[in-house]
Amino acid sequence: MGSGVSLPGGIDNVLSDFKPKEGRYPLKRYKAAHDVSRVVHLKREAVNFDLCVVGTTLEIPLNKIAPTEARSFIVETTHPYHIDVRCLHDDTISDVASQSFHSLATDSRLLIDILRPGITEIQVVIDFDFIDHGGSDVLNPHYHYIPTVLNLRAIYISLDVDSDRDGEIEHNSATKDYWKWGMDGYGPMLAMKTTKTRNLSPISDERVMSNKADGDPKLSDAVVRGVDEKEFTILKIRLIMYDVAPAEYQVCVSVDEDCKQSISIYTYTIEGLLRQMIGPETSETEAVVRWPPPSSNARSEDIIETKLLAQGQQLYDGSTQSKEFVAIKLSLYKKKEVIYEDKIYLRVCPWILPSPLAAPVALYVVDDKSEGVTETTVDDLRNTVEAIGASLVTIPRHKVTSHPEGEVLSAWMACGFTQTTEQTQTMVAVAMHQDEDSKRDLVLGSHLNYFTIGKVWGFDRIMATPPMYPYFPLGALLVSSLTPGGETPGNWKFGDYPVGYLPQSMTHFINSQKVQPIVEVFTDWLANGDIASVVNFVPATGPRGFKAVTPSMYICRDLLLDFRKDGEGFLCEGKTLNGIDASIKVSNILADREFWKMNQHFQSFIDFNRKTLRRQLGLQTDDFIELPALWQRCKGDKMRAVPFFPNMTSMMCLGDNIIIPKPHGPKRKYQTLDRFEKYTSDEFKSNRVTANVQFVDDWQRYFDSRRESRSYRSSLSSHVLVQRRPGSSPAWWEIEMS
């Protein structure tokens, strides 16, 4: 079961308070992480036995074993350095000197503090006399009773975990059931499940636990048959015991009934296989841990360690079915009575959405060959990401056709991450569509970890900002809202089917993660409610390290007016929509007063959001870059807007490159860039944007030829799902929170 681990300097490193000082037993008893006072009822004039744990106190009512005529008592013990005997009388505690009589009252109780484990049994002899000797050690020879004997076997046992977050498992830490945020904080955390442990079978029989198979030198302590222990929270049951425990005593590990769906606890069999003791697959909330063999060398003072591995099965989403903290108990039973209990609290790791400026690891896009869509966009993206060491993965269409959002991956999936002191791992959030879809995982590949949130949608209505110190060290989350900050633009009337909001279950989920504060953005005026359509971020030299990008119809109008001074031109030249030429003269656009009035109406919402970002995030006017954009009413919903040409705000930052949808603005024959592209490049340069600009022709994916109107999910960032590398600092538990 367990392996003996000899501590440097021997047992006194763990039990330093037990050490005798100058030949006398310590008067101050050891303070364990979980002190337990237990009442023990002894049989009068008999030999009794009890198994006790270091750090606990046995409370013996003397009136239960004292003869009626008794007026004083005397206590003798064989191991004065292992226990401390005191007497409680009239709420006053006094030391009980060995071999001296002490006055006995009806409420007198003997308190035995267990100070250190005993190599042999500790014998406590309690005798009485009918005379109150007042401290004399003279026993009345005529009224001497048969003494009551208590034989104690003192053991040390604890359930331990890394509670100070330094990667080492402390011995009986006083902070293992507490949580404190910050750099000087403490408290253990629960690692989340991975695809590798998804299908581990439950334990079928009671096996002795071991961290490696007996006699197999090929199995290391860290990885056993393909299981990486860094993917778990490691627990250790530590035990000091020098003899076999009686059969009536059992050690069990348990969780509360409402936590069994939130955690799995695994153990190693003697073959080195990982098996589930507690969790959803076993439906068990308590499991027996077999006693290990006692120490073979009574002088070695070894601590026997039993390793358990724990993993969270559910992220905390604010519902009663999920848990923010999971308690694991270690219980010592005498028959069916709990005589000792140790407990740890594990905080479920939050799901964190990385910054849109974080380095990409992989890009995922649906393979559109079957629909006849050009491969130009995919080829451009592949060349870009491969140049920076990332990869582009095309997903077969049949894997996404059953979902209503289909190829709009970012609408129903998002790549975030969870983090422990040992490992940071990608966690893909997947929105379910139908109840019978128990799993919609592995869409992006079996190498990733997945979790589902339920019948929700709208991951493209959430965006993380870059880190902003000191208030948003992991960034803030921009989320679509109908009434950001309790406000709504005065000229907006809600339709019958609001789109610029998140489902309640999604809102509860992101609020429950806590480490990325929520900032609401008004997007109900958009047909798709996409955050990237109204704000995005690019890396830039300066105090903040980034610039916020927003669309502007005023910039676009000024550029068109300036372009017309040198002659006529076309927007969207050479492009078609539903088989019809989509090009339009610049002069015709400028002459359409209703068109510009409509754009001013939509621009007011963009200006409203910019004020919200300045107020909530502390951004200044020079932190923004405005890019040309135009809007038109959605054919299916006249209240809401869709881009008139591909919206450049819905860009993607991929390492040192910024991928921007080609706007197809007006240009002269001798020009390489159109007027909108030229303006964007110049603005980025003047604002010291530290990335190369690359315009990608995404017209066919942007304006879906399979629909009668322009696509509701029209942004480039909606069709491409980016897996980004998590930031290294700070860790989420280091954030100062009230």
**CATH level-two architecture of the largest domain:** 5-stranded Propeller
- In the predicted model, the low-confidence regions spanning at least 5 consecutive residues are 1-33, 198-224, 370-374, 435-440, 705-713
What is the level 1 CATH name of the largest domain? Alpha Beta
Which geometry do the CA atoms define?
A: elongated
Assess the beta-strand content as a share of residues.
25-35%
Key phrases:
Immunoglobulin-like, L-arginine/glycine Amidinotransferase, Chain A, ten-stranded mixed β-sheet, five-stranded mixed β-sheet, disordered N terminus, Protein arginine deiminase-like 346, protein-arginine deiminase activity, calcium ion binding
What can you tell me about this protein's structure?
The chain has three domains: 3-156, Protein-arginine deiminase, N-terminal domain (Immunoglobulin-like), CATH 2.60.40; 161-348, Protein-arginine deiminase, central domain (Immunoglobulin-like); 360-734, L-arginine/glycine Amidinotransferase, Chain A (5-stranded Propeller), CATH 3.75.10. It is mainly beta. The protein is elongated and about 120 Å long. Strands 1, 3, 5, 8, 10, 11, 15, 17, 18 and 20 form a ten-stranded mixed sheet that branches. Strands 2-4-9-6-7 form a five-stranded mixed sheet, with no helix packed on it. The chain has nine helices and 43 strands.
